[in-house]
Amino acid sequence: MRLTVTKRQKAFLDATATEVLFGGAAGGGKSRGQLIDAFLFALTHPASKQLILRRTFPELEKSLIRESLALYPKSVYTYHATGHTGRFPNGSLIDFGYCATENDVFQYQSAEYDVIRFDELTHFTEFQYLYLMSRVRGANRYPKQIKSSTNPGGVGHGWVKARFIDPAPPDTVFTPERGGSRIFLPAKLEDNRFLLRADPAYRERLLALPERERRALLLGDWNIFDGQYFGEFSYDIHTCDPFPLPAHWRRYRTIDYGLDRLACLWIAVDDDRNAYLYREVCESDLIVSRAAERILSATPKDEHIYATLAPPDLWARSQESGRSKALLFEENGVRFTKTANDRETGWLSVKELLRLRADGTPRLHIFRNCTEMIRCLPLLQTDPLRPTDTKTEPHEITHAPDALRGFAIYYSRPSPPEAAAGSLWSPDLLEDYERAGEEEREYLRRRYGTPAALPGKG
After folding, report:
1. How far apart are the first and last CA of the chain?
2. CB–CB of 61/72 below 8 Å?
3. How is residue 105 annotated by DSSP?
């Protein structure tokens, strides 16, 4: 068998770094390079084990499995469809796998591989990648590597860029603080003379794409990618170094809360209605009392917060207790003003904050110490079924932007915060009182006074 490879594919085959990323533009020969590399490794290292992954099985079947059957000689390779495994006469194995959900990685918890290969790495989450790294192990002395290929874009664009693209120039091996080595090998369409020869019109089709998609797929531009919802976000334009805020600027807190993640943002609005995100707390696995404690501890005692904003779902009552998370937060010292939960209007309001005015400045400025927002906001992807909305996955990047969305929709249609404690019984509070036990009623009476009326009563 005679294998012909491009120069960039050869660089991928020769790469000895612990983690290798081969990618960039479409048509660079990335997937074929993976298959050739896997084939040569299997023949060179008897009884070796490799795992090749795509995010879903249909993607796997239509691309890598089909292409491997066309590429690998039947004299040395047999594919077993039942177990999705390719076998070689020398005992080497190539498993073809997928991880459609985060939990799918656990099917490999007892496995050992010499090499794991991710095809379209940006379709995977960072958790999936890091977990599967632990499966690269074994007692033999064969090279142990994670070799990946991808285009820009997808749910994992941000962490892949941070892990491979940002730390060092292309084609440069670098050593992270925790050891190992990494390298990014860029590939462009021009590198794949075989594709250009077989399909000369492919380049013209890429040139016909809209600018964002053209830059990502033709040029391999990692600063912009297909499906990005907030393509207008620019680190250089929308972030700034922290500075002391004038005391008279009105300040808000806005939250998104679930047991998996608390995101609380502090935003100040100046005299010209420019908004400055100046503080954030983003932490996981906090019950309500701990979340409230964390919010209060991050707020200086002398800092006046005009309103603390929260989405309507926090007022939903538990079937077990009949009480809402909003009430539990109040009991722990954090009282909310309810915002709207119109996702599309909220996201459009965020876009208005990001939009550049005639003088070239936006209304939203993010302090550079607010790293969670800076990381997550540009990673949100457009929902293909609802182009004015964002995808809700991966969930780990949605919390901080969702908190910003709550502020943005309030900012665009401001309403006064609820009256001070003891002066107003809202319908929600009245309903909470009616459902509450005597101890909880006593707490509400101490905080708000005796209600004048209950729902359905005079």
Report:
1. 90
2. no
3. G
Which uninterrupted H or E stretch holds 131?
helix 126-133
Instruction: Give the SS3 label for residue 159.
Output: helix
Rounded to the nearest 5 degrees, what angle is found at the Cα of 199, between the Cα atoms of 195 and 201?
125
Is residue 3 over pLDDT 90? no
Domain of residue 129 covers 7-217
Calculate mean pLDDT across residues 121-146: 92
When the pLDDT of each residue in the chain is averaged and rounded to a whole number, the result is 85
Contact of 451 with 433, CB cutoff 8 Å: yes
Region of 282 on the Ramachandran plot (φ > 0 left; ψ -120 to 50 alpha; else beta): beta
Whose structure tokens read 């009105």?
250
Amino acid code (one letter) for 19 = E
Cα–Cα nearest to 296, from 279, 318, 313: 279
Q: Would you mind telling me the total number of residues written for the chain in this entry?
A: 458
Identify the band that residue 24 occupies on the pLDDT scale cut at 50, 70 and 90: low
Confidence of residue 34 (pLDDT cuts 50, 70, 90): very high
Write down the pLDDT at residue 218: 56
Q: Are 20 and 12 in contact (CB under 8 A)?
A: yes
Q: What is the pLDDT of residue 2?
A: 66
Mean pLDDT of 416-443: 61
**Quick one: CA torsion of 21, 24, 26, 28, rounded to 10 degrees?**
-60
- Residue 30, Cβ neighbours under 10 Å: how many? 27
- CA 400 → CA 189, 230, 397, 407, distances in Å? 36, 14, 7, 11
In a domain, 118, yes or no: yes
Mean pLDDT calculated for residue range 433-440? 71
| Cβ burial, residue 53 (10 Å; 0-12/13-18/19+) | buried
**Residue spans of alpha helices (H) in 262-324:** 288-297
How many other C-beta atoms are found inside a 10 Å radius of the C-beta of residue 219?
Answer: 15
The burial of 306, by beta-carbon neighbours within 10 Å (0-12 exposed, 13-18 middle, 19 or more buried), is given as middle
Q: What is the pLDDT of residues 164-221, one digit of tens each?
A: 988 899 999 999 887 899 999 987 666 555 544 655 665 566 556 555 555 555 555 6
Q: Is residue 418 part of a domain?
A: no
Residue 314 has pLDDT above 60, yes or no: yes
Distance (Å, rounded) from C-alpha 157 to C-alpha 142? 30
CA distance 402 to 393: 12
Which residues lie across from 383 on neighbouring strands? Answer: 386
Indicate the DSSP class of residue 64.
Answer: I
Nearest by Cα to 353 from 377, 386, 388: 377
What CATH number does residue 338 fall under? 3.30.420.280
Domain final residue pick, 217, 252, 271: 217
Q: Are 156 and 28 in a shared domain? A: yes
Residue 436 lies in a domain: no
